[in-house]
Amino acid sequence: MAPPPGTIGPHGFLLKHGTAVDPVDAYRREQGETGILLDARYFRWWIAADAYASAHPRIFVDGVEVPDVAWGRTHIPMTPGLHHVEVSTSKPKWWYKWIFQAWVRDMGFADTVVPVVSGHCTTVHYRSPALYILRGAIGPQPMRWPGLNWIRFSWVITALLAAFVGLMLVGVVLNILE
């Protein structure tokens, strides 16, 4: 269970979004360039995937925004030590704003504390949520997308409505042909 937002987290960091627990021992360190490898993804099979594709992740390390980031894997060179990593999903490009009018600012905030060791790369995984009211998921292993069950539920409802409309059309056509 995550601590509430605005609490002092592990190792004295202020966890603005309350999504981190003490993850320092859980992160895998792999041989490579010293830094953080952040894998940021959105759910590509969601109806709003085009809007997510037009947006991009926003990454802050120790309060400084990392420039030129995109979905996928981003290597961030860092000095050894503990670093506070915050990730969110930016608002979509202007042409999606008229469709997603509620999504007018960044969403899917998540933060954690990441250890960096000299000569090693620490991998962090971020998943953007399905709904703008949910927090993102961040951690040492690939996480489930927040709101994935809502996405599946909406698919079932859509399929049921399509089947109902299809049956109504078949009934109308059979009635006309009679």
Describe the structure.
By secondary structure, the chain is an alpha+beta fold. Helix content is 20%, strand content 32%. The chain is built from 2 helices and 11 strands. It has helices at 49-54, 148-177, and strands at 7-8, 14-15, 29-31, 35-41, 57-61, 64-65, 72-77, 81-89, 107-116, 120-127, 137-139. Strands 3, 4, 7, 10 and 11 form a 5-stranded mixed sheet that branches. A 4-stranded antiparallel sheet has the order 6-5-8-9, with no helix packed on it. Strands 1-2 form a two-stranded antiparallel ribbon. The chain is elongated and about 80 Å long.
Secondary structure tally: strands: 11
Q: What general form does the structure show?
A: elongated
How many H/I helical runs? 2
Report the uncertain regions.
none
Helix content: 10-25%
Strand/helix succession? EEEEHEEEEEEEH
Which class best fits the helix and strand makeup? alpha+beta
Mean pLDDT: 78
Taking the alpha carbons of the first and last residues, their distance comes to: 62 Å
User: What is the makeup of the main sheet?
Assistant: 5 strands, mixed
Tell me the Rg in angstroms: 21 Å
How much of the polypeptide forms β-strand, as a percent range?
Answer: 25-35%
